[in-house]
């Protein structure tokens, strides 16, 4: 029922009306976390508190997406307070017992508390609960959502993890299949697989989360093509992308993020199946910087250009599950630490899946605008502008036989 209500609300809002009424560009920052944020990840928690105003900063915690909002809210409040904040719970959550989410989302006292805070934090869960709760039935903003925009425009920080990251773009994944392959095979449907988000990052960047752990760069591609995005930002677990008011992004935390650039990409609609040519994929390591407006990259401290005269990998690079946990980042690292120009990965499903004979080939190629950097001590890579082409392939079944 909640998802149906969320769809109705989302479809009532046209793409250009995702953001609140224009009151100038936001002066605040975003901390977009790819999910799985651990309490001991001091770098991310401390950044949120610092951007909210430092020690003693008031941060509103919205457990709107959570299945168990009271528990999630308390855990988040405790974590923020551990790092110096004075966090408080905003009880706007459809799964919160004994509350009317519609009434709470328009409560003037709650809205005023958010408006006066230095930051807000969305927990994980189901992002449809966030958009379905913070917009009215006619698609207009609730008082709480208007207060969040006021906080952000004034200079506060909006942070979110997992579902709280998905709502950052104007289009979000809404209720897609759990696995990536069905999205690649069947595309995305408005109001079901994708729907309007809250758009804090703006209208021209598509955001996704759990990126490397779940191979979700694969599902970003058809969604971006369907909705006309040329820039995608996908953040891995226990990692955050900090977005400043000048559209500058800094990656912090455990791992990294992927940037998908489709500005020069093409797709052949005359051919059956999803395909794309001449896309660019980049891996931003923790500490790296990227500007969403200029598309300029800068490696983090201690990074030096990879010396391609001294490489480790010389055998052909072929991955049989490019959508596996960290597989695409691993492949890219091997490619730039090799004497090869090209690496290949494939994606397919098992014999019991729907259309098991349909798969995809991902080709990654070093091109003149490719750049790569590494730290010798940690063997940590930053890899920018690798060409990526995807085409459908036929998988022979059975894929193997037992001898």
From TrEMBL:
It is an enzyme of class 3 (hydrolase). This is Cyanophycinase. It comes from Massilia orientalis. Keywords: Carboxypeptidase, Hydrolase, Protease. It comes from the Bacteria. Its EC number is 3.4.15.6.
């Amino acid at each position: 029922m909640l998802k149906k209500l969320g769809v109705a609300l989302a479809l009532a809002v046209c793409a250009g009306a995702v953001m609140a009424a224009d009151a100038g560009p936001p002066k605040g920052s975003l901390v977009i976390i790819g999910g799985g944020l651990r309490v001991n990840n001091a770098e991310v928690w401390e950044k949120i508190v610092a951007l909210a105003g430092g020690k003693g900063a008031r941060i509103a915690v919205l457990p709107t997406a959570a299945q168990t909002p009271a528990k999630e809210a308390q855990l988040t409040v405790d974590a923020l307070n551990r790092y110096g904040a004075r966090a408080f719970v905003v009880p706007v959550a459809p799964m919160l017992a004994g509350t009317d989410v519609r009434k709470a989302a328009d409560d003037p006292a709650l809205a005023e508390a958010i408006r006066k805070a230095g930051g807000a934090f969305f927990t994980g869960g189901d992002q449809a609960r966030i958009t379905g709760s913070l917009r009215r039935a006619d698609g207009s903003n609730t008082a709480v959502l208007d207060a969040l925009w006021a906080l952000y425009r004034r200079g506060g920080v909006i942070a979110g993890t997992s579902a709280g990251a998905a709502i950052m773009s104007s289009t979000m994944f809404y209720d897609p299949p759990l696995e990536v392959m069905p999205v690649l095979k069947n595309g995305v449907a408005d109001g079901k697989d994708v729907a309007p988000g809250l758009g804090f990052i703006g209208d021209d960047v598509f955001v996704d989360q759990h990126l490397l752990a779940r191979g979700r760069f694969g599902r970003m591609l058809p969604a971006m093509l369907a909705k006309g995005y040329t820039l995608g930002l996908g953040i891995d677990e226990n990692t955050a992308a900090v977005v400043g008011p000048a559209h500058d992004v800094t990656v912090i935390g455990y791992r990294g993020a992927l940037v998908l650039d489709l500005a020069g990409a093409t797709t052949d609609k005359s051919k059956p199946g999803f395909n794309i040519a001449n896309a660019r994929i980049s891996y931003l390591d923790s500490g790296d910087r990227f500007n969403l407006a200029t598309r300029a990259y800068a490696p983090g401290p201690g990074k030096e250009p990879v010396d391609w005269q001294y490489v480790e990998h010389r055998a052909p690079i072929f991955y049989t599950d490019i959508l596996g946990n960290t597989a695409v980042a691993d492949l890219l690292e091997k490619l730039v630490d090799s004497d090869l120009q090209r690496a290949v990965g494939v994606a397919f499903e098992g014999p019991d899946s729907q259309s098991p004979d349909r798969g995809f080939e991902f080709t990654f190629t070093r091109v003149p605008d490719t750049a790569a950097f590494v730290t010798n001590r940690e063997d940590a890579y930053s890899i920018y502008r690798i060409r990526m082409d995807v085409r459908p392939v036929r998988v022979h079944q059975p894929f193997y036989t037992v001898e």
